[in-house]
Amino acid sequence: MAAPLGQYKMVLFARTTDKEILRGAQNGGIVTALLSYALDTGIIDGAVVAAPSRSKPWRGKFDPWRSEPIVAMTRDQLLSARKTGYNISPNVMMIKEATRSYGLDRVGIVGVPCQIQGVRKAQLYPIGMRGVPDKIALVIGIYCMEVFPYQSIVQIVEDHGGVKMESVEKIEIGKGNFTVVTERGRTIQIPLNETRDLEQPGCHVCLDYAATLADISTGSAGSPAGWSTVFIRTKIGDEVWKRAMQAGLFETKPIGQVEPGLGAVEKLAVEKITRNKKTLEDRDFIGTKGLRNPYITT
Amino acid sequence: MANKITVGHVHMSGCTGCLVSLADNYLGLIKILDDYADLVYGLTLADVRHIPEMDVALVEGSVCIQDHESVEDIKTARKKAKIVVAVGGCAASGNINRFDRGGQHNQPQHESYVPISDLIDVDVFIPGCAPTPQMIRNVCVMAYLLLRGSDDQKALAAKYLKPLMALAKNPIASKANFNTLMQEVINVGLCMGCGSCAGACPVRAISMEFGKPQGARDLCINCGACYSQCPRSFFHFEVMDEYEAITDIINGAMK
Predict the structure, then answer these.
(1) Which of A104, A113, B58, B147 is the residue whose CA sits 20 to 30 A from A161?
(2) Distance (Å, rounded) from C-alpha A152 to C-alpha A85?
(3) Which of A179, A199, A219 is the last residue of a domain?
(4) Does residue A93 belong to the interface with chain B, where contact is any CB pair within 8 Å?
């Protein structure tokens, strides 16, 4: 694997000029604004996104903290999927579904780095992904340190945080804390050291933080509050971004201008990669035979 | 073109779905046959009685060990072909043939079927039922680059084909089914719940429970798609980091 931040053509701070999207956004509303624009202009005709769970509603409404993948084909559906969920949503399972059951020819997908790896593997080695490789039109990656199984989120919020799940307004992971904001405005911070053991174990062998294989990747790291850091990585990403900028979809700031900037993103990427390489090495010494490293084929 | 490679389709016990999948490249198949490969053998497509010398044998189907002709044919294919590709679940991991108990007219004693790698050395695996047109296309293009390309193209093709060649040498892959995904990925703490396996499964046997794949094993047909599609079964950064360039090469070759 190359540089911690991967290859990119351009990196900048951005936030959407679409007030409706920004109101409900986790940060700068980049993902929702891009997909909404791509949908309007026919760059994509649908997108696989993680949305509040329909299959397991919480007290009569969609559960925002239990994510599940949907194929969004309208702006309203995209708006319903705003905000970060921090739990496992098997988005890649829907890409073939999107091309077949939904009949889409140009599919957008949002995912965390491991999911983008799944998407790219599906494109280069489409072993069970009939028709998928040529129909992926836009791949947006979100930075990711780790995610939690839904049951872990319940445990963190209710046992560690001492508040009920239904009072949660926002969950945010950053600056060393798992932060829960309740609907009445109370903020509870749980140090990530305390929640480390509750993370999804599969995350601990992941060597990508900044979604280096996406067309465009984004996240809050390094950016001022309310903004996002955005990497434009591929030809497709570059083209879509340019068109969106021409359409006045985003306001931007150059990355050098504002602290903490690129250094902060790189620091997190290096931290994740270093820690997880260590986990991979440690796996060699589990028992006397060791466990398999997925990145090495003998 | 004079510099084409020679390819044959060798049909063992299978449903011809793999061949249909190759044909489902539509104009892409014509492009492959025009520019990159001559089809020198194929039960229904080439008027050739005996398996000839060829660069690449695309073998579809399992071998019935009670059918001596099939056993001879697979040995001949190995002798005559430089590269033997197990195309599809039946050739690679046995697939639905694993459930055969015989009794069919007019050879009721034909009851034991094995993937071809149980009998001969295989060079490349393309798992899945059916293997996808795009996967077969990619391997055809890469086989051409490996045998006829420039040094750079040869190196790239070798890099691309490496994990599929490793599968062909891996006894686990020749027995692959949902249990393999379970044992090689989920049970050893590598699964991160991306859903690639559930998307790849041709019979919708995989659902996600607590964010992880759970298989309805009665539905599993042993095609191996879930295991090999999983980004945690094999994932080579030296190939994947060049995803954009490789995609351009494949698309360029098919233009």
Answers:
(1) A113
(2) 13
(3) A199
(4) yes
